[in-house]
Specification:
About 75% of the residues lie in helices and about 0% in strands. The protein has about 120 residues and is mostly helical. The chain has a domain of about 70 residues. This is DUF4190 domain-containing protein. InterPro entries: DUF4190.
């Protein structure tokens, strides 16, 4: 039997010689941070290039997941921050795109009606 190991027995319990004093703490999952970042990127792409109506929900979901990940102090801090930033940018672009679509759409409708009225004068 190893005397050094037995001599380190203090207080009536046996110490683990491999324990460095830090215990093992599970780090948790980076899933929420990854989801925030992916949704933020998708929101930017959909909000700018395809349609703001798809970018808006993706941006909101990415923002919520990123904020929850940071509040719970989960791993993946950089991805969560990237998701928050991308989601905020996407939300701003989506709202701006919807406003522009409403204004331009209404103007285009009036312009098309004026063209129809003008062409009706020439056809008679």
């Amino acid at each position: 039997m190893d005397n050094n190991y037995n001599n380190n027995n203090q207080g009536g319990y046996v110490q683990d010689p491999y324990n460095n004093g830090g215990g093992f703490e599970p780090q948790g999952s980076k899933g929420m941070s990854i989801a925030s970042m992916v949704l933020g990127i998708c929101a930017v792409v959909f909000g700018c290039c395809i349609t703001a109506y798809v970018g808006l929900p993706c941006g909101v979901a990415g923002l919520v997941l990123g904020i929850l990940s940071r509040k719970k102090d989960l791993p993946g801090k950089g991805m969560a921050i990237a998701g928050i930033v991308c989601s905020i940018v996407a939300l701003a672009l989506s709202v701006l795109g919807i406003i522009i679509a409403l204004v331009v759409g209404d103007s285009l409708k009036e312009w098309a009606e004026s063209l129809q009225n003008a062409s009706a004068l020439f056809i008679k």
